[in-house]
TrEMBL record:
Pathway in which the depicted protein is active: Nucleotide-sugar biosynthesis; UDP-N-acetyl-alpha-D-glucosamine biosynthesis; N-acetyl-alpha-D-glucosamine 1-phosphate from alpha-D-glucosamine 6-phosphate (route I): step 2/2
The protein's name: Phosphoacetylglucosamine mutase
Entry cofactors: Mg(2+)
Function description: Interconverts GlcNAc-6-P and GlcNAc-1-P.
Tagged with keyword Metal-binding: yes
Cofactor: how and how many bound: Binds 1 Mg(2+) ion per subunit.
Amino acid sequence: MDLGTLKESCSQYSNPGNVKLTYGTAGFRAEASLLPSTVYRCGLLMAMRALKTGAVTGLVVTASHNPVEDNGVKLVDPTGYMLEQTWEAWANKLAAADDVDGTCTVVQELFQVEDIPYGSGTVMLAHDTRPSADGLVKAAAAGVAAMGSLPIACGLLTTPQLHWMVRQCNAGLKHKEKAYFEALATGFARLVSGHTAPSEGLIVDCANGVGAGKLQVLADRLAPGMAAELRNTSTEAGLNDACGADFLQKERRLPAGFQHVPAGARCASLDGDADRLVYFRRQGSGDEVHLFDGDRIAVLAALLVMDLLKSLPPAEQRPPTVGIVQTAYANGASTEYIHENLKCEVRVTPTGVKHLHTAAEEFDVGVYFEANGHGTVLFSAALVQRLHELGADSGPAKALLALVDMVNQAVGDALSGVLLVEAALRRKNWGLPEWAALYTDLPSRQLKVKVADRSVVTTSDAETRVVTPSCLQHLIDSAVNAAPSGRAFVRPSGTEDVVRVYAEAATQAAADDLARLVARHVHSAAAGVGPPP
Ligand SMILES: CC(=O)N[C@H]1[C@@H](OP(=O)(O)O)O[C@H](CO)[C@@H](O)[C@@H]1O
Ligand SMILES: [Mg+2]
């Protein structure tokens, strides 16, 4: 690194005044015009992370399910997972540094404290379909180059594609986009070989995002073996606007362009950067939907894996462990079903896939999904080795190996997720009715409360208990106790300037009332902005 070059480059990316961006649940996010200096500094950071680890790192310019005016950055570690959590503090420190001298001081401190060798690293860059992408990718590349490292522009990709590419690249495996489609498509074909395709095709809401074009490539490769009709496929307009996985999960309404879809048809929805997936079907005569959320996808994935594991020859040592990781947002009925029927271990972590992923690594097969549809399945190296040993003689081992190739183990991936669900349903000869019949969701409601400063709300016990403001948990407890089969919790969002409220109860009316009452308590205890909910 040359300090003179760094200073010169840094001076072109000054921080906007009065704005303090923090790393949050999944990286930095804000209105796009506020972001160039932060994204530039993320370029610096990921170049240093590449030097520290001696491996390729990645950076995706995206704001996922947020409105099109926003943008953001997701940072990819050499494993393909999200940035190592201890480095989030460095990301925040760099983002907050006062212009040139402040930034250079943090860079020098990071080199010293983390004992980073000087040299040249490589950072792979990608972006979604937002109009602000070009300028921000340039800012990221300038940051990487200012460190004397090499930015590789990988262009328009889904977030999980870049995670997958970084992971493969560092493992010395094929890592171009072509190899990604190859892995998913051949894995799927092997997994469903000999099983009849359903008579009805899948209809996918692509959120007018980057997933549309990519899923089309995959569908074309798999045709006629997998029939998929894609809707909301514009890359010009309507990103996440009344459509997409987040809209469906939060609003429980039909997305734009689905009003005339036949009742009961098998539909799926991706989010703006295609790392979340939910399934749904139209219900009733209005725009109501029956949602098949991340919890239900996790259960289906676990059923598929457990069926296959059961058919393997008995293990000489201990049988493989299977665990499901959820957050407090998981519907209580799903958790009960997993305990009572699947009889596998459930772990609950704070929100954010970085937490779920770490917990899932403790099992031979770790299935993790957030209720909003972000998740994947991880397979331990020991299990994969055993499957290879059994492979040639064992149908179930071959099917599991197909699954290992098809599932994006770096991060939740809506494209790989569609194939996972389609393959699981096909192998069981199930449609949506059989999948829905596993358990009935408890009615729930999510609300957001705008407050002056969301950081005044702090939590413990995987975000299920409020620590501060000190009076708030007591008020929530009283509200919960008065609701039939009630459960509620609140936490500050890590991606939006709000406090989130979740409530569950025996009836929809009781869940709605409980959510509203808790939201009012948040508003009064944590300096709510605007009229009380
Ligand atoms: C309730 C909810 O859906 N929260 C989402 C949302 O985080 P918040 O910290 O709640 O804003 O965005 C995250 C990143 O996509 C995702 O991991 C998380 O599950
Ligand atoms: Mg997303």
